[in-house]
Input
Amino acid sequence: MINETTKDRVRARIQSLLCLAVLCGILIAGLWPFERPPNGVTWLGNQNGLRFSGDATVRSSGSFQTAGPSDENSCSLDLWLQPGATNDSNTILSFSTAANPRQLSIHQYRSSLIVNREIRSDPHRNATIGIDGVFRQIKPVFITIASGAQETAMYVDGVLARKFQRFRLESNCTGQLVIGTSPIADDSWPGQLRGIAIYRQELTAAQALSHYESWTTQGRPRLSGDERAIALYLFVERGGSVVHNAVPGGIDLHIPKRYSLVHQRFLEPFWEEYKLDREHWKDILINIAGFIPLGFFFCAYWSRVRPTGGAALVTTAFGLAVSLTIEVLQAYLPTRNSGTTDLFTNTLGTFLGAKLYDLKAARDLLARIYLE
Output
């Protein structure tokens, strides 16, 4: 016969192991892979260009400066790229500063091309434009975005797709150029990049067509002096960690060995994290459900094994502490997002787990586990 003292020891050990297993599971789920993953950028090898897969990014080695007064309303971009899928929604590139981490970003949203302007100090100037059908097929596409004092035009394979009145890039083509992901969150874009050019000039329709024809046939655009190119990346190196700027004295691109974010968020406010979509609410429910076992088993531990006054309150506070620890550490992991929404959802899940222990059926089930 097993005496009561031995039973108590077995129960305490089982409960301790259950608590440890739940805690370890939550920490692994919240912090995996525990380090910055290798950068998923590789050279195409048999042709000029880079392939982006998995967690991948390239960034400029310096910051592009604000243009002079005569050019502050003019900026144009040439992008020669190929999507890795037609149903992805990711960030292709951004111009980023400390004050405005996503001041200008270009995205693939399924088959659409989206350009977003975000000015933190003046939200009324935030704007988004886009065109449909750009990425309907997995094949190379040449995009020109030309912005002047009055409007911004988008060209696809040298042909005008649409003009947007009263939308201007202005001085947003400044700061550090971040390619392949968002500067502040893991939003890696899968695909191939074969050329980028930046101009301090509004390109004309004739120039957009000329660049498309020359770049896709000769591997580089035919440039004239009035186009004011400040960056031209041809990706001719086919190896190494540096993409040289073909414009003399221009800023090069750097391929880091490991994936990281330029301005990773630390405890992002919940009102900025909020999104009115199904995925956001799905994440909320997952986070609540994920902490219910922690609340249940730790409340049982502090109620039966190590009796503590106000076990439910202590357990809820412990859940908050665990959640805060995870969110702080996630700020150093580029594949995770550090935010305050999870503090609320995880703490709520812990509280619900602690209240679940109050149910007689739950306690009876736990009693059988304890060999009673």
